[in-house]
Structures are given as C-alpha cells and as structure tokens.
Design a protein that fits this description.
By secondary structure, the chain is of the alpha/beta class. The protein folds into two domains: 140 residues, ATPase, nucleotide binding domain (Nucleotidyltransferase, domain 5, 2-Layer Sandwich); 167 residues, 2-Layer Sandwich (Nucleotidyltransferase, domain 5). Helix content is 42%, strand content 18%. It has a five-stranded mixed sheet with strand order 3-2-1-4-5, sandwiched between helices. The chain has a five-stranded mixed sheet with strand order 8-7-6-9-10, with helices on both faces. α3 crosses α9 and α4 packs parallel to α6. The chain is globular and about 65 Å long. It starts with 5 loop residues before the first strand and ends in a 17-residue tail after the last helix.
Amino acid sequence: MNKDCIILGIESSCDDTSAAVVCNGLLLSNVTASQAVHEAYGGVVPELASRAHQQNIVPVVDQALKQAGVEAEQLSAIAFTRGPGLMGSLLVGVSFAKGLAASLGIPMIDVNHLHGHVLAHFIHTEEDDYQSPPFPFLCLLVSGGNSQIVLVRSYKDMEIIGQTIDDAAGEAIDKCSKVMGLGYPGGPIIDRLARQGNADAFHFAKPSIPGYDYSFSGLKTSFLYSLREWVKEDPDFVEHHKADLAASLERTIVEILMNKLYHAAKDLGIRDVAVAGGVSANNGLRNAFHAYAKRYGWRVYIPRFSYTTDNAAMIAITGYFKYQDHEFCPMEAPAYSRVAH
C-alpha cells in the first residue's frame, strides 16, 4: 500500500469533531461526533465546544482509521481545517494534526473550511455514481456563518463573486427560529415545519442590494417586528401559525438566494450550478434548484446530506488535491478564525 496516496482529514471548526480517510481520491471512512450540549444554550458555546473537541478527537480519529482499514504509519499526509471557525475549536484540531504529523514524519496540508464545502462535490466512494460538476461552475455556499456565490474555475482557483454583507442565510433562520421559541439549531426545525405550511401566508421584506451580494438583516428585522405586532393581537399567534411562518420565511430566503444566483449564472453564461454548506440540506432550497434546472436548463449538483454539514470527508478530499500539487504547510502555521486565506 506504500504507493497509495492516503490522506487523513481532520475537521474541528465549530461543534462537530470529524475525521476521514481518503485513498487515491476515494473516501474510505468519515466519522463525526456531534455535540448536543449547545442546544440548551440556543447556540454554540465556544468554551464548551473546544472542551468537547478535546474529548472527541482521539476516539474519532481512531475510528476513522479503523473503519478505513488503515494504520497511522500508512498515511501520506494529514489535512486539517485551519480556518475560518471558532478559534478554540480550531486549535484542538490544528494541534492534534501537528502532533500526529510530527510523530509520523509526514507533511501537513492546511484547508480553508469554505473551500472544503465547495469541494464536497468531489467526494466519491467505490459504490456511488455521483457526478461531480465540470469546471468552471458556480457554487452557492450557504451555511450558518456564510452565504456566498463562488465561481469555481479549478480545485484551487475559486473567486467569491457575491457574499452576504451582514447575516448569513443560516444565521437568519436560526435567529428567526429562536424568536419563535422553536429551539436551536433552527434550520432543521424550520425545514420540517415548512413542509406542512403555506409559503404564501406571510410576506417579509426583501433587501435591494446591488450586484451579487446578499443581505439578510432586513428580513430578520421585518420578521421580528411583524411577529411582535401579531403576538400583541393574539398571544398564541406563533403556536397557531408556526408551519405557515416557517414556510413563508423559508420561501423568502430561498427566493433571495436563488435570484442572485440566477443573475450570476446568466451574466457569466454558466449552466453548471452547485450548492454546498449546511443550508444546502434544506428541502425548499433543493426543490428550488431542481425547478431552476427545469426552467433555465441548468445542470445542478446537490451533495449528499452527510456532506452538507461540517465533515472531514471534504477536508480530506481537498487535502488529496493539494497533495498532488505538493501544497504543504509549515508546522508553525497558525489557525485563523475569520481572516480569508
């Protein structure tokens, strides 16, 4: 097996500890430990997240290697999320990757978390028949912390042509869910309720931002103020209308996202369009992608649910591509929380 290129990927940017093994471009294992502790607080608590990573990282990496049938000594390199993310969480993954790479005498590959989400479209196992998008393609990257339109020319040539100027789409959904008293994380709750509701029941403000950039703070404020007025008249308003509220909120966010993406695709003459990030698991957004494909002749690429949220498979596959180009990083490379790399 010495001739094989075997990459261990480590992801610890937020509250999921994940490790994956890729061999010659094929995924052999992808193990993730999620943290339920944050639900009681209505959001991720950084200090609790980093402690949980410390508890989880050794067993998660051990399981990933065992499931892949790979010994640590067979690894060619270790890929890790260097940023962006929560600094305390990142430091656990970065420190572990450095220690393991040093002990094995193998190179390290730093991965930008957002690049990883885009390249999740290139994760393959021996059994799957998923078609990866051809270059160039457009990728709508939507998560709790990011909403971007990315022009992807190659594995390492990506240009952000539009992004949120304030809240991300996922952040807006979480905050509106919290206002409704539905719990955290809001994305899956809103998604589930929206399937039972009337998407045309309520209308909320849509921002008018030039170019391909997004804004979701106005929508969030509009939702909050509208809800306040309705609850004044009927204290049980949310309980009576939560499915319709969820469906109307989801429809508004999906329309904002898709409108900019449509204009970018049209202006650039690109018909291969992908979606990535945690919000790409949303049913309404996936349906919109299929509808646009029918209407505008797009070829759409939607990753499997397991590759939409934070996972190490996307870090390992990105590491595999960087390994081919000998793009290694020095041992002293620090983690970064927000700086674009």
